[in-house]
Each structure stands twice: as structure tokens, then as C-alpha cells.
Specification:
Blueprint lengths: L6 E13 L3 E12 L2 H21 L3 E2 L9 E16 L6 E17 L5 H9 L4 E9 L6 H23 L3 E10 L18 H8 L13 E14 L7
Parallel strand pairs: 3-4
Antiparallel strand pairs: 1-8, 2-5, 2-6, 4-5, 7-8
Helix pairs in contact: 2-4
Length: about 240
């Protein structure tokens, strides 16, 4: 038998593409321990001023609504203090050492990758600075997104044609094209940004005399779409 109205064919199309990153996010923590909370806060603030002054030498500016895509930006995200405690083998308890630590989290964004080695040198030369995390990212409006999304649509069309041809028919028209999940299925999450070995390398660099050599990590763009087509000429014979 055949369906004069056509057969509805629903498929998912997926495409991936490796591209250079647009920027890196380097999350660092500045820690300073002193005999009082006020002294620790002052020391951490001084270290922050010193770090950002070195970043300014390489063109670094504070992050705000206007500087988001400058070559090098920084922002102080949070500041905390805590009483240091050490394990007392005699009592088995963690007792205050008499020192207070102030910690400041700083996010450094770098787009001018020729400055990576300079940034590594700045961080590696400071014992009070520890790298917590490094991630590489692609801008939401990177031109490569258009290509990978178009490739996902073409993948869906090829799959739909395969299904129609398996039943002796061909695609006639497109009913829907949507992001994965918008047509009723589970929504697929984009792949997370890749993490590099920069955090480990820079932290180790604090203990040596030379800063590590840093390099951008390529990122994989993923586009997943759902499509529905109408197929003509489909035949079905009951056995």
C-alpha cells in the first residue's frame, strides 16, 4: 500500500568541527597568611595590585561591559578569609595556628595568544598565586558555528533520504528544522570546553626557575538538530 499524503520522516543530524579557540580563561587564587585578619587582607590586596600591575604592562585591563573582547582582561571575583588550622597529633583535633589567610579569586581572560608565555612568566614568578583552572573557549558568534550548523542540517537531509530510499521513496519537503529537543526529544547539551594542562604546568612552574611554554588547545564545535520531512513514493507491502 502507499500513502498519498506522504510519509513523515523524523531524523536527527549531527556535525562536529575542530577550530582554534578564541580565548582562554585562567582562574587563579591569591593567598596571603598573616597574624591577623586585617593584615592578611592588606597583604592579599597588595599582591592583587602587584599582579594586575604586571598584567597592565602587557595591556591587561579590568573586565567590564566595554572591555570584554580586549586582548587581556582580569576581574577579581571573590575574596574570603579563614583561620588556619593544623592537626594536633596529641589531641587529634585541628587547632588554630594563630594565622589568618585571605584569598582572592582572579579570572584572567586572554585573547592575544602571543601573550601566553608572558602570562605564564607572571604567574610562575609569584609564590602566592596558584592556578585553579584553565579552559579554552570559542565565541558564540565565531563564523565557524554557521558552517557546523549547516553541516548538521545536511547530515539530517542525507539520513532522511536514506530512510525514504529504503522504502522506495524520496523526500518531498521539509516540515521542521529545530535544535535538538525542541521537537519533543531530549535536549542535547553542547560539549564542554576542553581543559588544558596549563593549570598543572604553571603551578609547577612556581617551583622552578623557568616558566612553562603555553599553547592554545583546539576546540570541538558540535551542532545537533532535529528535522522532519515528508517523503513521497513510499510503498509498504504487508507480508
Amino acid at each position: 500500500m502507499s500513502d498519498p499524503a506522504g510519509l513523515l520522516v523524523s531524523v536527527r543530524g549531527e556535525a562536529r568541527r575542530m577550530v582554534p579557540p578564541d580565548y582562554a580563561i585562567v582562574a587563579v587564587t591569591i593567598e596571603a597568611s598573616r597574624g591577623s585578619k586585617a593584615a592578611a587582607v592588606r597583604a592579599a590586596a597588595a599582591s592583587l595590585d602587584s599582579l594586575t600591575a604586571d598584567l597592565a604592562v602587557w595591556g591587561g585591563v579590568p573586565l567590564d561591559a566595554r572591555t570584554g573582547r580586549r586582548p587581556l582582561t582580569w576581574s577579581a571575583q571573590s575574596a574570603t578569609t579563614f583561620v588556619e588550622r593544623a592537626h594536633d597529633k596529641r589531641t587529634g583535633q585541628y587547632q588554630p595556628t594563630g594565622m589568618v589567610t585571605a584569598a582572592v579569586t582572579v579570572i584572567i581572560a586572554i585573547r592575544a595568544f602571543e601573550l601566553l608565555d608572558a602570562l605564564g612568566t607572571v604567574i610562575a614568578g609569584r609564590e602566592e598565586v596558584r592556578v585553579q583552572e584553565v579552559t579554552w573557549h570559542v565565541d558564540w558568534d565565531n563564523p565557524a558555528w554557521q558552517g557546523v550548523r549547516a553541516a548538521a542540517v545536511q547530515a539530517a537531509i542525507r539520513k532522511g533520504r536514506d530512510y525514504a530510499a529504503a522504502l522506495g521513496g524520496s523526500l518531498r519537503s521539509v516540515e521542521h528544522i529545530a535544535d535538538a529537543g525542541l521537537l519533543g526529544g531530549e535536549r542535547s547539551q553542547p560539549a564542554p570546553a576542553s581543559r588544558s594542562a596549563l593549570a598543572r604546568a604553571v603551578s609547577q612552574g612556581n617551583e622552578g626557575s623557568e616558566a612553562p611554554s603555553l599553547g592554545p588547545v583546539p576546540q570541538e564545535l558540535t551542532a545537533i538538530i532535529e528535522a522532519r520531512f515528508i517523503a513521497d513514493g513510499v510503498t509498504w507491502t504487508d507480508e
